[in-house]
């Protein structure tokens, strides 16, 4: 199937029906999807509303001012104030040193990850915009299968954010209630009491929600971009299933996907590497502090540390797993192309043998496809083809074998092998720290 035929087939799916059905159809499924305001049927409406409520709307000068002011207040000023032990006084006993130390350890990585997320989103919105960031402009070249699948992924995007944020939020609320009911806030020239504690409770909790949400939003956007490319690889796989697809069309489609994978890798590589450094440093600092502490660990003095570690690792694993999935699909295309090339070659050999046995008669060839669970025998008639088709298919297989990388970090494919390497590195550091602690205790 030609690429133009696929596009024309997609357009023909929407040419029938009355105008009412057309305007009720989601915008991503329309062939003439252009920049528009937030309509009821606009799949980006939820994104725009979420960005506005999170003070991340950079579409206007006022929105930028509010965004930067909110970031300075909730990601810089409030964490600094909340990490100073002189503002807190325990109502019953002296505030444990470990409580303030754990609190300080939590504030730094949360603010650092929020800075990375805010800086990444600011650069994205300034250079690309939301539609170009999500590759919506390029959807006109995709099939209806990819468009519908991407529409579903857009609908599910914030579910992943909610699955991480909401449980952590409830645990954080419980911890802050216990903390501020035990600790009295003391400020110069300000009377202490319930109103001041309530204001501090709201500011600290709002700061946590803001910083966590900014970091997780970038993770969700990255995963959403990976899901789009996975859908395109599935569409490319369908081009092989017919056993009669043209190698040139498959090559052009793979080049288009490969280009967008390179763009995605270039956009998110700084965020992924910097997040890895911050999370690794914070986790090992927490490990050293916990092992060095002599006091009992409880929900009061280390609850923040538990929530912070869970959110950090969940968001980062969301990025790594999305990148590993798409890299696995990209690496598997070479095997699919090799099987397709073998099937086509055997079929053409059968055609040539039929010519020798019966002049002018082209028998029907069978191509067995067993990649999917619901695969069945497909019977395809092959017309006489140019001898160069074999060289074209062989060149396509060689090309896919040498261009099988998905998401890369400065040339290194973010695949399962790299994940195993990262795990081995982190595990070695943990065991080394534990061995030093055991030696010191002895």
TrEMBL record:
Record has Transmembrane as a keyword: yes
Signal peptide range in chain numbering: none
Membrane-spanning residues: 65-88, 108-125, 157-179, 199-222, 268-292, 304-324, 417-435
Taxonomic superkingdom: Eukaryota
Pfam families assigned: DUF3537
Keywords from the UniProt entry: Membrane, Transmembrane, Transmembrane helix
InterPro entries attached to this UniProt entry: DUF3537
Keyword Transmembrane helix: yes
UniProt-recorded name of the protein: Extracellular ligand-gated ion channel
Organism, as annotated: Gossypium stocksii
């Amino acid at each position: 199937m030609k690429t133009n035929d696929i596009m024309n087939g997609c357009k023909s799916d929407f040419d029938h029906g009355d105008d009412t059905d057309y305007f009720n159809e989601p915008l991503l499924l329309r062939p003439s999807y252009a920049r528009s305001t937030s309509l009821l049927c606009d799949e980006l409406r939820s994104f725009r509303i979420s960005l506005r409520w999170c003070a991340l709307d950079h579409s206007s000068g006022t929105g930028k001012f509010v965004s930067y002011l909110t970031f300075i207040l909730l990601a810089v000023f409030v964490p600094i104030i909340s990490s100073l032990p002189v503002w807190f006084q325990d109502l019953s006993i002296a505030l444990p040193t470990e409580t303030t130390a754990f609190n300080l350890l939590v504030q730094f990585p949360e603010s650092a990850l929020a800075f990375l997320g805010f800086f990444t989103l600011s650069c994205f919105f300034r250079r690309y915009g939301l539609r170009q960031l999500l590759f919506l402009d390029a959807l006109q070249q995709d099939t209806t299968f990819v468009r519908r699948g991407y529409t579903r992924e857009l609908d599910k995007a914030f579910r992943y954010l909610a699955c991480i944020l909401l449980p952590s939020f409830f645990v954080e609320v419980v911890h802050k209630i216990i903390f501020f009911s035990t600790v009295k806030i003391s400020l110069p020239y300000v009377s202490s009491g319930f109103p001041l504690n309530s204001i501090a409770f709201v500011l600290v909790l709002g700061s946590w929600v803001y910083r966590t949400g900014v970091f997780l939003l970038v993770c969700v956007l990255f995963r959403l971009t990976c899901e789009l490319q996975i859908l395109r690889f599935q569409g490319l796989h369908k081009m092989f299933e017919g056993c009669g697809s043209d190698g040139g069309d498959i090559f052009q489609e793979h080049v288009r996907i490969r280009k967008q994978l390179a763009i995605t890798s270039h956009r998110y590589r700084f965020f992924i590497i910097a997040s890895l450094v911050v999370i690794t440093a914070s986790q090992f600092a927490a490990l050293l502090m916990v092992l060095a502490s002599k006091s009992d660990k409880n929900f009061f003095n280390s609850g923040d540390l538990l929530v912070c570690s869970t959110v950090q690792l969940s968001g980062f694993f969301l990025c790594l797993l999305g990148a590993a999935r798409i890299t696995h699909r990209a690496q598997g295309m070479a095997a699919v192309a090799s099987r397709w090339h073998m099937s086509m070659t055997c079929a053409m050999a059968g055609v040539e043998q039929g010519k020798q046995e019966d002049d002018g008669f082209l028998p029907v060839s069978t191509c067995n496809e067993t990649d999917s669970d619901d695969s069945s025998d497909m019977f395809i008639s092959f017309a006489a083809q140019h001898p160069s088709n074999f060289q074209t298919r062989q060149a396509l297989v060689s090309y896919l074998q040498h261009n099988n990388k998905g998401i890369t970090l400065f040339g290194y494919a973010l695949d399962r092998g790299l994940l195993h390497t990262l795990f081995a590195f982190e595990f070695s550091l943990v065991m080394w720290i534990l061995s030093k602690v055991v030696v010191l205790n002895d």
